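Progress against Task 2.4 (sequence-to-structure conversion) is shown through the following example record, which the project officer requested during the mid-term review.
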Amino acid sequence: MRSITEKGIGWELRNSIWMLWVFFPFAFFNYISFFYAAFRVRQRKWFFAGLIYTLPFIIFLIAEEGHFLFDIAFALALISWVSSIFHVFRIRPEYLLRLESQQKVQEKNLKQLKEAIAKEHILESNDEQQVISPKEEFINPMQPSIENESVSKRIDVNHASADEIAKVPGVGLIFAKKILAERERVGFFQNFEHFIQVLGIKPHVAEKMRPYLQFNTDDNNQGNQKKKMERGRVVDF
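Structure tokens generated for the chain above:
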């Protein structure tokens, strides 16, 4: 037996089981084969063929025995049964080719979907590996940075300059300036937790910074108290 499609004879036989409906006795179910084929590969012409093969069966059921319509329906049902057997073998090659093409499109779409999902996972993985804060601006790769310079001691974030803070892994000069701006706004950072909360730093980035940072608040507290005393001083005349 010669194969019709690239799928092989085994695949073709498995996808030709629907043809067996035409071999049931006396056209009782021959129309089912055409309805199935029409639905599977979306062909209206086979749906209409199924309707035509259904009519003799319906007339045969409703006609009274002995009536001339009964004899006509019987003859039509017999003719349609034989005709449907030849018809179903004629449409089989087209059905198999259409089904093969349809499955190739589905496999292609599925492959594209898998590739798209894989790319999304790669992008998400790259985002997690980056040490850039969500509030940090884009750093020009051509811009000189002192991020790679070693930090020999802990940096006091409440008193350090932008260049000193920029040496901390995961910071960079632009983000260091951002830290100074936030420090100016809040006065000083109370502790490491306050620091990451104000700047919105991701946990995995914060853990890389933690060993290099410290927060000395003694001078800041004295300065704030002094400012409060100056604001609260009353001058007598």
